[in-house]
From TrEMBL:
GO molecular function list: metallodipeptidase activity
Leader sequence residues: none
Top-level taxonomic group: Bacteria
Species name: Planifilum fimeticola
Gene3D superfamilies: Metal-dependent hydrolases
A single GO BP: proteolysis
PROSITE patterns: RENAL_DIPEPTIDASE_1, RENAL_DIPEPTIDASE_2
CDD domains (alphabetical): rDP_like
InterPro entries assigned: Dipep_AS, Metal_Hydrolase, Pept_M19
Protein name: Dipeptidase
UniProt-listed Pfam families: Peptidase_M19 (PF01244)
């Protein structure tokens, strides 16, 4: 069976590296490298454009554009093995072409510096998904690590309205709880949490509370279960696949079989869940899932849920 992985930070690593890193070399230091991704059955990989807070704010826009360039130059190249996906037609073509799809997503609106023209430019470059914040506050909203817990700002609302006009997908992973509910209340944007787990299973503030998960179910969004050890289990050093399965059980208990999917966060994490050290761990996860759940469900979580969602919402 094939996988869709809803989040990785390969582009950040490519941008941040002193020496050029290859995506296609089997010996590449990346968690997600092409030979292993293909062998593991990754059919579509979402690539985040992420700029760490260590980068000066006035360089963030440049860093995002350079990552877009790396996406096309290093990942997609001539399109013979990996193909950029930004429409439902391109998504549907994946099956017959046998190529791996690659979708661009912006993680945090910081680089927009409060100007919507930058959102429109990114859309034209193929970005179809945007998370309003990383962990901190920006012009659009507060992230989960801001103690004041603010919601969307006036710019944040304008940004979401423009995303709805462009038909972009809104990612609530990293967003403050109040921001989450602001989005749910006033926006019709298709909503996902690309890489978040269950707070009831592992009480980390990056994880979603039950009422948030129920709201995602109601909105027919997607919740990408993620492999970040501290969001999987406490203590994080012991995090294993069996703990990840508890999150899956919990989402199912809340009626979320149809929103359940995966967003690894590979290349964005330095510690790993046992057995899920890199993209080569996906087949092991598949095996564990098939031991516990009906094949039809597993197929849904690996592929169908993301696929149906993107087919519906990528214009
Ligand atoms: Zn993230």
């Amino acid at each position: 069976m094939r996988w869709i992985d809803g989040h990785c930070d390969v582009l950040w690593k490519l941008w941040d590296a002193r020496e050029p890193i290859s995506f296609y070399d089997a010996k590449s230091p990346l968690d997600v490298r092409f030979p292993d991704a293909r062998a593991a059955g990754i059919g579509l990989q979402v690539f985040a454009l992420f700029v760490s807070p260590k980068v000066p704010r006035d360089s963030a826009w440049d860093a995002v554009l350079r990552q877009v360039d790396l996406f096309y130059e290093v990942i997609v190249r001539d399109g013979s093995e990996v193909t950029a996906v930004s429409s439902s037609a391109e998504l549907e073509n994946l099956k017959s072409s046998g190529k791996m799809g690659a979708l661009l997503s912006l993680e945090g609106a910081d680089a927009l510096s409060g100007d919507l023209y930058r959102l429109r430019v990114l859309y034209r470059l193929g970005v179809r998904q945007l998370g309003l914040t990383w962990n901190h506050a920006n012009e659009a909203a507060d992230g989960v690590e801001e103690d004041r817990g603010g919601g969307l700002t006036r710019f944040g609302r304008k940004l979401v309205e423009e995303m709805v006009r462009l038909r972009m997908i809104l990612d609530v992973s990293h967003l403050s709880e109040r921001g989450f509910w602001d989005v749910m209340e006033f926006s019709d944007a298709p909503v996902i949490a690309s890489h978040s787990n269950c707070h009831a299973v592992c009480p980390h503030r990056r994880n979603l509370k039950d009422d948030q998960i129920r709201a995602l179910v109601e909105k027919e969004g997607i919740m990408g279960i993620t492999f970040v050890p501290q969001f999987v289990h406490e203590p994080k050093e012991e995090a294993a696949v069996e703990h990840l399965l508890r999150h899956i059980d919990h989402v199912c208990e809340l009626g979320g079989e149809r929103i359940l999917a995966f967003g690894s966060d590979f290349d964005g994490i330095s510690h790993k869940v046992k057995g899920l050290e890199d993209v080569g761990g996906f087949p092991f996860l598949e095996e564990q899932l098939l031991k516990r759940y009906p094949e039809e469900w597993v197929r849904r979580w690996m592929w169908d849920n993301w696929y149906e969602f993107y087919r519906k919402h990528l214009s």
